[in-house]
Design brief:
The chain is an all-alpha fold and 139 residues long. It has one domain. The protein has helices at residues 6-9, 11-43, 46-84, 88-129. It is elongated, with a radius of gyration of 22 Å. It starts with 5 loop residues before the first helix and ends in a 10-residue tail after the last helix.
Length: 139
């Protein structure tokens, strides 16, 4: 298959949008960690500490997602350079690497989302368990 420079260029919008989403996640988690840290310093509550540890794990995962996204973007750029220099085999290999990096980034993103949902389920179940029981009217 003959690849042109426009083939790897098709990934640029997708990779850019993923990177933007990952950065937004990172920023929101950073803000949440800061507020929980202040809350922990005041109360020394173990549940707050557990939430911070969960968020720390997610921040590291987002760092990996961003790293693989950057590698996908760089591979894509170098693929375009190779194709423009008539190095088609190198361009195709780098384009394949770009796709692999993007897939890895998305898999880590999926794992981070699962951790997030599990943490929310724990909080929701805790709310449900601590909900006061409704009293039935007596006659």
């Amino acid at each position: 298959m003959q690849m042109t420079v426009t083939t790897p260029a098709l990934l640029f919008p997708a990779i850019s949008l993923f990177m933007l989403a990952f950065t937004n996640r990172f920023l929101s988690l950073g803000g949440r960690i800061r507020s929980l840290h202040d809350q922990y310093r005041e109360s020394m509550d173990d549940s707050v500490r557990a939430q911070i540890e969960n968020l720390r794990r997610r921040v590291y995962m987002i760092r990996h997602m961003q790293g693989y996204g950057v590698m996908a973007m760089l591979s894509c750029i170098f693929s375009m350079v190779c194709i423009s220099l008539d190095q088609y085999m190198a361009g195709q290999i780098l384009f394949g690497a770009s796709l692999i990096f993007l897939i890895i980034s998305l898999v880590v993103s999926f794992m981070e989302i699962r951790i997030s949902v599990n943490a929310l389920d724990i909080l929701l179940n805790d709310m449900k368990a601590n909900q006061p029981q409704k009293k039935t009217p007596t006659k």
